[in-house]
């Protein structure tokens, strides 16, 4: 179980995680194991938007096929440097902003999945050496170099 206390400090206590097998079907379909920290984070805070600005995909959106429905268009973009799941070896699309900035988890050779982002307004691909929990905590605390994110001003309401 991933420690989400660093996220809870900003977003409040997580929702109860009663759907522990929410990703089992998707993992079987894609033939891989998703990172535990991603699953725990999205079971607790996924399928919601933070302050109306940062949407984190969760089990419902994956079941509905939302991120997968965007895959082909994103992969056709000359700015997206890697394939996207369920493409073999693909990265996981896990969130976005209303300005079409896209968040991905990229599988690394050491087994970690780290955050990368396509920042539309800067026409820039940004790699972070952070897991999704580390990145989100840093982004909420304004400690991650992500000037493309809003100045939160203490407003972390989940919608």
Automatic annotation (TrEMBL):
At the top level, the lineage of the source is Bacteria
Name it: SMI1/KNR4 family protein
Origin species, per record, is Kitasatospora cinereorecta
